[in-house]
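We close this part of the discussion by returning to an individual protein. Part of our work consisted of pairing the sequence of a single chain with a tokenised description of its backbone. The amino acid sequence and the backbone structure tokens for this protein are reproduced below.
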Amino acid sequence: MAQDLPPGPIIIADWHLCAESKDFFNRILQKKKRRQFGLLESPMMAPHVAVETVQYKVFLSGKSGVGKTCLAARLAGLSTPSMHYETTGIETIVLYWPVKLRENGRVLFFRLQLWDCGENALRRFDHLLPSCKEQVDAVLFLFSFTDRTSFDDLPNQIARWSGPSDQLVKMVVGTKFDLFMHSDVTQREVRQFQETQGLPVLRTGGEVSDGLGDVAPFLNCLAERLWHQDCMAATLPSGPTHYREGALI
């Protein structure tokens, strides 16, 4: 996986490489591979280690075939599908990612529930999109570097999730970046889009190893923006309402 965004000021970007993070990351690993968590499962730390958990709902938006299911599998450490198939309804994946805040050294477990819904299913069944939008915290807008129409469709995708009271974290993800010889989208066009829309653009593609380094930049970038959004919401009268150690904040 690849990304072109500089590290943010909130999260220590290379913390997963530090020795002090080993115990935390071991909780999301099993036999040196990413552990798969069910809806009711969570990493278990020693009783004397107090780690806060914050949970977020992340929706993957994009045309059919851009790689939504593949991206979700990559981020969760699952095997990516060998063949493309259209997601027939809503599929969810839960992953945990520990981060350390730069300002005060607090360690947080981010619980990310990734929602993937087939584009054709969204068109056919009116009730699916409202379910996907309910209590959503972030949207990843995907396009494929090998599919020009998916890039041109981004404004429509973004408009579907925009509103006057919109407080969503929004990021754009370009998939199949490794197939640059077959790219239908130029880097100049991506930069122009990023400047016009004011949204970060990440790039993914290629093989993913069993290590954490492949997904760390992506997940840290997403966690950075989610936490910043929470900090901004905390200044509002209503405040944020994300679960943290059994309490609403």
Summary: The chain has one domain: 15-248. The CA atoms of residues 75 and 215 lie 6 Å apart. DSSP finds eight helices and ten strands in the chain. The chain has a mean pLDDT of 84.
